[in-house]
Amino acid sequence: MPDQLVIAGRAYRSRLLVGTGKYRDFAETRDAIEASGAEIVTVAIRRTNIGQNPDEPSLLDAVPPSRFTLLPNTAGCYTADDAVRTLRLARELLDGHDLVKLEVLGDPRTLYPNVIETIAAAKTLVADGFKVMVYTSDDPIIAKQLEEVGCVAVMPLASLIGSGMGILNPWNLQIIIDQANVPVIVDAGVGTASDAAIAMELGCDGVLMNTAIAAARDPVLMARAMGRAVEAGRDAFRAGRMPKKLYSAAPSSPQTGLIAPANSQAA
Predict the structure, then answer these.
(1) Most distant CA pair in the chain: distance in Å?
(2) Torsion-angle region of 164 (φ positive above 0: left; ψ -120 to 50: alpha; else: beta)
(3) N or C: which end of the chain has fewer CB within 10 A?
(4) Which of 196, 156, 194, 195 is nearest to 177 (CA)?
Protein backbone atom coordinates (compact mmCIF):
# COMPACT_ATOMS: atom_id res chain seq x y z
CA MET A 1 0.00 0.00 0.00
CA PRO A 2 1.30 3.52 -0.76
CA ASP A 3 2.46 5.52 2.25
CA GLN A 4 0.18 8.54 1.99
CA LEU A 5 -0.77 11.45 4.20
CA VAL A 6 -4.49 11.30 4.93
CA ILE A 7 -6.24 14.45 6.13
CA ALA A 8 -10.01 14.60 6.60
CA GLY A 9 -10.42 11.45 4.53
CA ARG A 10 -8.36 12.60 1.54
CA ALA A 11 -4.99 11.06 0.69
CA TYR A 12 -1.93 13.00 -0.49
CA ARG A 13 1.33 11.68 -1.89
CA SER A 14 3.45 14.53 -0.54
CA ARG A 15 3.92 15.13 3.17
CA LEU A 16 5.32 18.60 2.57
CA LEU A 17 2.89 21.52 2.83
CA VAL A 18 4.05 24.95 1.70
CA GLY A 19 3.02 28.56 2.03
CA THR A 20 2.72 31.26 -0.60
CA GLY A 21 4.02 34.37 1.13
CA LYS A 22 7.31 36.31 0.90
CA TYR A 23 8.18 35.33 -2.67
CA ARG A 24 9.38 37.88 -5.20
CA ASP A 25 6.29 37.39 -7.37
CA PHE A 26 3.64 34.83 -8.23
CA ALA A 27 5.89 33.26 -10.88
CA GLU A 28 8.54 32.43 -8.28
CA THR A 29 5.80 31.16 -5.98
CA ARG A 30 4.60 28.77 -8.66
CA ASP A 31 8.09 27.55 -9.55
CA ALA A 32 9.00 26.86 -5.91
CA ILE A 33 5.76 25.01 -5.19
CA GLU A 34 6.17 22.83 -8.25
CA ALA A 35 9.79 22.05 -7.30
CA SER A 36 8.72 21.08 -3.77
CA GLY A 37 6.24 18.48 -4.95
CA ALA A 38 3.72 19.79 -2.42
CA GLU A 39 0.03 19.24 -3.05
CA ILE A 40 -1.37 21.31 -0.16
CA VAL A 41 -0.67 25.04 -0.37
CA THR A 42 -1.54 27.54 2.35
CA VAL A 43 -2.95 30.96 1.52
CA ALA A 44 -3.12 33.91 3.92
CA ILE A 45 -6.59 35.28 3.17
CA ARG A 46 -5.85 38.65 4.76
CA ARG A 47 -2.68 39.19 2.71
CA THR A 48 -3.17 37.44 -0.62
CA ASN A 49 -5.60 38.17 -3.41
CA ILE A 50 -7.63 35.11 -4.38
CA GLY A 51 -10.43 37.05 -6.01
CA GLN A 52 -11.49 39.56 -3.40
CA ASN A 53 -9.63 42.27 -5.37
CA PRO A 54 -10.70 41.68 -8.99
CA ASP A 55 -8.45 44.42 -10.40
CA GLU A 56 -5.25 42.85 -9.02
CA PRO A 57 -3.33 39.70 -10.04
CA SER A 58 -4.75 36.63 -8.33
CA LEU A 59 -2.70 33.86 -6.73
CA LEU A 60 -5.18 31.39 -8.22
CA ASP A 61 -3.74 32.08 -11.67
CA ALA A 62 -0.33 30.80 -10.50
CA VAL A 63 -1.60 28.13 -8.09
CA PRO A 64 -4.89 26.87 -9.54
CA PRO A 65 -7.27 24.91 -7.27
CA SER A 66 -7.56 22.33 -10.06
CA ARG A 67 -3.94 21.29 -9.38
CA PHE A 68 -3.45 22.02 -5.68
CA THR A 69 -5.46 21.75 -2.48
CA LEU A 70 -5.66 25.30 -1.20
CA LEU A 71 -5.51 25.71 2.56
CA PRO A 72 -6.86 29.14 3.55
CA ASN A 73 -5.25 30.33 6.78
CA THR A 74 -5.89 33.07 9.29
CA ALA A 75 -2.41 34.60 9.45
CA GLY A 76 -2.65 38.03 11.03
CA CYS A 77 -5.66 37.20 13.21
CA TYR A 78 -5.40 37.87 16.96
CA THR A 79 -8.91 36.98 18.12
CA ALA A 80 -11.22 34.03 17.64
CA ASP A 81 -13.85 36.29 16.05
CA ASP A 82 -11.41 37.61 13.44
CA ALA A 83 -10.25 34.09 12.58
CA VAL A 84 -13.78 32.75 12.19
CA ARG A 85 -14.81 35.73 10.06
CA THR A 86 -11.75 35.32 7.82
CA LEU A 87 -12.37 31.64 7.15
CA ARG A 88 -16.04 32.19 6.43
CA LEU A 89 -14.96 34.74 3.81
CA ALA A 90 -12.51 32.19 2.38
CA ARG A 91 -15.29 29.62 2.10
CA GLU A 92 -17.35 32.07 0.07
CA LEU A 93 -14.44 33.01 -2.19
CA LEU A 94 -13.52 29.35 -2.80
CA ASP A 95 -17.02 28.04 -3.51
CA GLY A 96 -17.64 26.26 -0.25
CA HIS A 97 -14.10 25.00 0.42
CA ASP A 98 -14.07 23.71 4.01
CA LEU A 99 -10.48 22.51 4.69
CA VAL A 100 -8.76 25.38 6.50
CA LYS A 101 -5.78 26.22 8.66
CA LEU A 102 -6.59 28.03 11.88
CA GLU A 103 -4.03 30.18 13.63
CA VAL A 104 -4.80 32.80 16.25
CA LEU A 105 -1.73 34.75 17.29
CA GLY A 106 -1.07 36.18 20.71
CA ASP A 107 1.89 38.45 20.09
CA PRO A 108 2.87 40.39 16.95
CA ARG A 109 6.58 40.20 17.81
CA THR A 110 6.92 36.44 18.31
CA LEU A 111 3.74 35.30 16.51
CA TYR A 112 3.28 32.76 19.29
CA PRO A 113 -0.20 31.23 19.30
CA ASN A 114 -2.90 32.36 21.69
CA VAL A 115 -4.16 28.92 22.63
CA ILE A 116 -7.24 30.17 24.50
CA GLU A 117 -8.52 32.06 21.46
CA THR A 118 -7.43 29.19 19.21
CA ILE A 119 -9.57 26.67 21.10
CA ALA A 120 -12.56 29.04 21.06
CA ALA A 121 -12.24 29.56 17.30
CA ALA A 122 -11.79 25.84 16.67
CA LYS A 123 -15.01 25.02 18.51
CA THR A 124 -16.96 27.54 16.43
CA LEU A 125 -15.45 26.46 13.11
CA VAL A 126 -15.93 22.73 13.72
CA ALA A 127 -19.56 23.36 14.67
CA ASP A 128 -19.90 25.38 11.46
CA GLY A 129 -18.80 22.45 9.30
CA PHE A 130 -15.16 23.37 8.71
CA LYS A 131 -12.37 20.78 8.62
CA VAL A 132 -9.84 22.51 10.81
CA MET A 133 -6.07 22.03 10.74
CA VAL A 134 -4.81 24.01 13.69
CA TYR A 135 -1.52 25.79 14.47
CA THR A 136 -0.69 25.56 18.14
CA SER A 137 2.07 25.54 20.71
CA ASP A 138 4.06 22.41 21.49
CA ASP A 139 2.02 21.85 24.66
CA PRO A 140 0.79 18.22 24.55
CA ILE A 141 -2.28 19.02 26.69
CA ILE A 142 -3.45 21.78 24.35
CA ALA A 143 -2.78 19.62 21.29
CA LYS A 144 -4.96 16.85 22.74
CA GLN A 145 -7.73 19.31 23.58
CA LEU A 146 -7.75 20.61 20.01
CA GLU A 147 -8.02 17.06 18.70
CA GLU A 148 -10.93 16.41 21.07
CA VAL A 149 -12.65 19.58 19.84
CA GLY A 150 -12.71 17.97 16.40
CA CYS A 151 -9.70 19.37 14.53
CA VAL A 152 -8.58 17.11 11.68
CA ALA A 153 -4.86 17.81 12.23
CA VAL A 154 -2.78 19.45 14.94
CA MET A 155 0.17 21.58 13.88
CA PRO A 156 2.59 22.33 16.73
CA LEU A 157 5.41 24.78 16.19
CA ALA A 158 9.00 23.57 16.07
CA SER A 159 10.15 27.07 17.00
CA LEU A 160 8.84 30.58 16.37
CA ILE A 161 7.33 31.42 12.98
CA GLY A 162 10.00 32.60 10.56
CA SER A 163 12.84 32.01 13.03
CA GLY A 164 14.52 29.14 11.18
CA MET A 165 15.67 27.79 14.56
CA GLY A 166 14.57 24.24 13.84
CA ILE A 167 13.10 21.81 16.38
CA LEU A 168 13.87 23.18 19.83
CA ASN A 169 11.79 20.76 21.90
CA PRO A 170 11.68 17.30 20.32
CA TRP A 171 10.49 15.75 23.58
CA ASN A 172 7.19 17.66 23.59
CA LEU A 173 6.69 16.88 19.91
CA GLN A 174 7.22 13.20 20.66
CA ILE A 175 4.53 13.26 23.35
CA ILE A 176 2.10 14.97 20.96
CA ILE A 177 2.84 12.39 18.27
CA ASP A 178 2.49 9.45 20.64
CA GLN A 179 -0.93 10.50 21.92
CA ALA A 180 -2.48 11.83 18.70
CA ASN A 181 -5.16 10.09 16.68
CA VAL A 182 -5.04 12.72 13.91
CA PRO A 183 -2.09 13.80 11.75
CA VAL A 184 0.61 15.82 13.50
CA ILE A 185 2.26 18.33 11.19
CA VAL A 186 5.16 20.50 12.32
CA ASP A 187 4.32 24.11 11.50
CA ALA A 188 6.80 26.98 11.93
CA GLY A 189 10.49 27.20 12.69
CA VAL A 190 11.98 24.92 10.04
CA GLY A 191 15.08 26.55 8.57
CA THR A 192 16.74 24.00 6.33
CA ALA A 193 16.35 20.49 4.96
CA SER A 194 17.84 18.73 7.98
CA ASP A 195 15.16 20.29 10.21
CA ALA A 196 12.45 18.82 8.00
CA ALA A 197 14.13 15.41 8.00
CA ILE A 198 14.40 15.42 11.81
CA ALA A 199 10.70 16.24 12.17
CA MET A 200 9.80 13.32 9.95
CA GLU A 201 12.23 10.98 11.72
CA LEU A 202 10.46 11.78 15.00
CA GLY A 203 7.27 10.44 13.48
CA CYS A 204 5.50 13.62 12.37
CA ASP A 205 3.02 13.04 9.58
CA GLY A 206 4.12 16.10 7.65
CA VAL A 207 5.87 19.46 7.71
CA LEU A 208 4.52 22.87 6.74
CA MET A 209 6.87 25.70 5.86
CA ASN A 210 7.05 29.01 4.04
CA THR A 211 9.93 31.28 5.06
CA ALA A 212 12.53 28.49 4.92
CA ILE A 213 11.89 28.24 1.20
CA ALA A 214 10.88 31.78 0.26
CA ALA A 215 13.77 33.43 2.14
CA ALA A 216 16.45 31.09 0.76
CA ARG A 217 18.99 32.49 -1.69
CA ASP A 218 17.53 30.12 -4.29
CA PRO A 219 13.93 29.37 -3.30
CA VAL A 220 13.32 26.86 -6.09
CA LEU A 221 16.41 24.83 -5.22
CA MET A 222 15.55 24.94 -1.51
CA ALA A 223 12.00 23.81 -2.27
CA ARG A 224 13.39 20.78 -4.08
CA ALA A 225 15.70 20.04 -1.15
CA MET A 226 12.81 20.27 1.32
CA GLY A 227 10.72 17.84 -0.67
CA ARG A 228 13.54 15.30 -0.69
CA ALA A 229 14.27 15.81 3.01
CA VAL A 230 10.68 15.11 3.98
CA GLU A 231 10.71 11.91 1.91
CA ALA A 232 14.06 10.80 3.38
CA GLY A 233 12.96 11.49 6.94
CA ARG A 234 9.73 9.58 6.45
CA ASP A 235 11.58 6.59 4.98
CA ALA A 236 14.00 6.62 7.91
CA PHE A 237 11.12 6.68 10.40
CA ARG A 238 9.40 3.79 8.71
CA ALA A 239 12.63 1.81 8.45
CA GLY A 240 13.42 2.17 12.14
CA ARG A 241 16.84 3.43 13.11
CA MET A 242 19.44 1.27 14.80
CA PRO A 243 19.64 1.68 18.60
CA LYS A 244 22.18 4.10 20.00
CA LYS A 245 24.93 2.35 21.94
CA LEU A 246 27.26 4.42 24.11
CA TYR A 247 30.73 2.80 24.27
CA SER A 248 29.52 -0.33 22.56
CA ALA A 249 31.10 -0.29 19.12
CA ALA A 250 30.10 -3.05 16.72
CA PRO A 251 32.14 -3.57 13.51
CA SER A 252 30.26 -3.51 10.24
CA SER A 253 32.13 -6.58 8.95
CA PRO A 254 32.30 -10.08 10.55
CA GLN A 255 35.30 -10.84 12.73
CA THR A 256 35.50 -14.57 11.94
CA GLY A 257 37.04 -16.25 8.91
CA LEU A 258 39.49 -13.41 8.34
CA ILE A 259 42.34 -13.85 5.86
CA ALA A 260 45.58 -14.38 7.77
CA PRO A 261 48.41 -11.86 7.33
CA ALA A 262 51.03 -12.81 4.71
CA ASN A 263 53.80 -13.33 7.31
CA SER A 264 51.67 -15.59 9.54
CA GLN A 265 53.00 -18.77 7.80
CA ALA A 266 56.52 -17.98 8.85
CA ALA A 267 55.42 -17.80 12.45
Answers:
(1) 92
(2) left
(3) N
(4) 156
- Read off the pLDDT of residues 64-78 as tens digits, 9 standing for 90 and up: 888 999 999 999 999
Q: What Å distances lie between residue 236 and 171, 204, 231, 249, CA to CA?
A: 18, 12, 9, 22
Cα–Cα distance, 76 to 104 (Å, whole number): 8
Q: Is 101 a catalytic residue?
A: yes
- Stretches where the chain sits below pLDDT 50 are 267
* SS3 category, 132: strand
| pLDDT recorded at residue 250 | 65
70 to each of 41, 91, 162, 185, how far by Cα in Å? 5, 11, 21, 16
* pLDDT for the residue numbered 139: 96
pLDDT of residue 245: 83
Helix (H) or strand (E) holding 207: strand 206-209
Question: Model pTM?
Answer: 0.88
Q: Could you tell me which residues come within 8 angstroms of residue 33 by beta carbon, excluding any fewer than 6 positions away?
A: 18, 20, 41, 63, 68, 223
DSSP strand pairing (16-18 vs 40-44): parallel
Q: Catalytic pick from 101, 123, 144, 245?
A: 101
Q: Do 133 and 155 meet the contact criterion of CB atoms below 8 Å apart?
A: yes
Q: What is the distance between the alpha carbons of residues 46 and 162, in angstroms, rounded to a whole number?
A: 18
